[in-house]
Amino acid sequence: MRPLAVIGNVNVDLIVGPVAPWPKAGTETVVDHDDLRVGGQAGNTALAWQALGIDFEIAANVGDDQFGRWLREAFGHRAQKWPVRPEGTTLSVGMTHPDGERTFFTTRGHLPRFSLDDVLSVLDGNRLAGGYALLSGSFLTDDLTRDYGALFDWAEANRIAVALDAGWPIDGWTEANCAAARGWLSRCELALFNEVETTTLAGLASPVAAARKIRDGMKDRGIVVVKRGPDGAIAIGTDGNLIEVPAPRVAVVDTIGAGDVFNAAFLAALAHGHSLEMCLSAAIRVASRAISTLPRDYGGPTQFEDAVHERA
Questions:
Q1: Under CATH, what is the fold of the domain 4-9+40-66+112-309?
Q2: Domain segments of the chain: what residues?
Q3: How many CB atoms lie within 10 A of CB 117?
Q4: In this structure, is the dihedral angle defined by the CA atoms of residues 125, 130, 131 and 137, taken in order, positive or negative?
Q5: Which end of the chain is more exposed for a tag (fewer CB within 10 A), N or C?
Q6: What pTM was estimated for this model as a whole?
Q7: Strands (E), 205-312
Q8: What is the pLDDT of residues 55-67, one digit of tens each?
């Protein structure tokens, strides 16, 4: 298996709901469900890897408070070198709605101060040589994002293939944000975006055409994966061929972090050397299980192995 790492945003998520209709100012609303948990794109990916029994490393930082200590405890020895910032830990409050949509309120907290020095203090390039590093939360980690060029140089020097899931920009996909993402993708071997992000970034209505356009601007014309929710996923491989895998019909309980869980299973299967079709199939199965269970269940190592061999 090739080495795996995730670099990016780990924060605290407080999920409450469902909320409908939107509360009026000055009132109090009682909800049926609450869940305080590890969150952030990098955090969600790492949690899935842990549950699937995958060996990995994670570079992140935390704030100097009880939430920061709690996040470090969640990842044990993997978080021992995480830098601690004097700011409070970033907290994201998510309110779910009956139609499956959600609304987030997020504090700035520690995430903007996550830096390249923080990454290099945690990850060993030699140990990750020949592996994959997932870069996530790009629009939240201000200090690191400014040094992405140096981060890509470090990855290339150590033969680490970079996968990008930039996340949704706080101010939306403005032309400036699209240009920034295209620049990052030009240094990446893999892109892991959802359908709306893909079509918006490419300026094309068709997800297939959009994926091909994005791939044309990537390093060595790498792999583009488009996550399509209930419609499954598609990918354009290094050979330029299109692969499509449908998703099973499940009773959705909680979609928060679904794309990050997909990323985790996809990269784990890829690191094991499986075909692109198998990687998509495994990612869809694991993510579908995660969003349809409460408490969240990823299936565990045995079911993950079954998933990646299902299409063999």
A1: UDP-N-acetylmuramoyl-L-alanine:D-glutamate ligase (3.40.1190)
A2: 4-9+40-66+112-309
A3: 12
A4: positive
A5: C
A6: 0.94
A7: 223-227, 233-236, 242-245
A8: 999 999 999 999 9
